[in-house]
Records
---
Amino acid sequence: MPETAPPSATAAYRPTARTVPTRARERAAYDHELVHAILDEAYICHLGFVRDGAPVVLPTLYGRVGERLYVHGSTGSRPLRMAGGTDSGGTEAPGLAVCLTVTHVDGLVLARSAFHHSINYRSVVVHGIARQVTDAEERRAALDAIVDHVVPGRSYDSRPANDRELAATAVIRLDLDEVSAKVRTGGPNDDPEDAGLPHWAGVVPLARGYGAPVPADDLDPAIDLPDYLSVL
């Protein structure tokens, strides 16, 4: 599987016209470690592109391997077909221009004024050209990464895709090149003249939680709960 160079501990993505926000620029960040942490903690991304002149946004699973993101879908999926691939001579197709986003909501920010209500969040936006993965080894590794992104270790504890399933599955990759993170923390930013208003103000924290795993109805009772699920 092709490798991408690991970033140094102090590496940062280069800001571009598309990754520098027009508002609240102080919340933007380009640190590799922060971007990777936000991506690795989420489950769903939103993949945006233009189809027939109209914008389209698809929610989907993804996985990260180094400086690449992978998304999978049906080989009949139009956006995945639009991403093209590599011809017999090794030349890459033009690919599909996309914008991929991931967002965590960490808290509800309640201000004294309606105007200053907000949320605390962490988000990543990736711009780039998505291309279909045609190399068999890279496709299998990408699919394992997507499974392990949901539950680490799960790809080793499930049947790998067979040839028929692989033939029906397309994978696209998006390099982490034009990337930015944006983070809001803290309490409400009320105007000084509103400080004395008789309205509650503050933050309602939000946290992700897991319920107890529920076994399938036909699961053999002799099969114990895997360790990677017991620690969720």
---
Amino acid sequence: MEPVDRSCARTRAWTDEAMRRVQADANRSADTHLHVLDLPDEWGVQVYLKDESVHPTGSLKHRLARSLFLYGLASGWITDGTTVVEASSGSTAVSEAYFARLIGVPFVAVMPRTTSPEKVALIEREGGRCHFVEHGGAVYAEAERLAAESGGHYLDQFTYAERATDWRGNNNIAESILSQLAEEPHPVPEWIVVGAGTGGTSATIGRYLRYRRLPTRLAVVDPEGSAFLPGWTAGDPAFETGTASRIEGIGRPRMEPSFVPSVIDRMIPVPDAAGIATVRHLRERTGRFTGGSTGTNLWGVYGIVAEMLREGRRGSVVTLICDGGERYRHSYYDDDWVAAQGLDLAPYRATLDEFFATGRWAG
């Protein structure tokens, strides 16, 4: 039998150019700022905010989208004319639409109809098409169906997030954080605190900490209705709640394949009202306009800082600014929306005021 050759010079040339474009984007926007949160000097604790909102597409998901496209291109799954499909609640799809436009392929985002209109507009501005489902749990099967129907490629962030990123380095987010802390008073943080949407960020950070043999512990915050915390507690990789999260970008109705429980040292439940109160408090204190996942992160951080103060420990804690608040003007920053959700922010605001005044935490 004669050898079968499926290579095509034109196809490889297209892939080479697509790779170059995606890698050039990485060179232009390889790193993000690490801000210091203003805390009393006598506490001896520094909190750092890794500002992922300054990526070209405005969120932490820019890193994931870049990795997923490189993975798809390198695997031969994305070629000239391939329709790329994703199941996403918003920010990932915004970033993926950007990369699809960058390399010249069609993009379809499958998302719940409740996704914020700001994110829908951003996806469409990047040339993507939004395909809505009524229930959040339906996005997976619908994305798979659309990809098969079009002969396209389903990026499947919830499966591939933990493997598309090189957790050993290559300027991943963990390596970037540790490098930026090198000249700080406590260059090896006590804790890194993140949320989980796909689970890819926590998997990357947790693996990197072990790879580098660092004592830093990893905490994952989880909003109401998410399957991650109860699934992690029960050790059940199939746990489901069937409930979509109000905090876009984190929390899932099921334990996702990219969520790696074994690298997580602590999980912290955060009420949705607490996360929303915290982003509003952050804006008042610092002027930083951020999304709900950032507030959820910070609520967990403040509890950890108060614990360190009680125990007389000094050190640093790092978390992420996941995206900007302009995407949530009609939700987290809208009093009518908050009231319609039945959320009372006042008790959590009181907790925040007490913490910054005394260092004590009643959360």
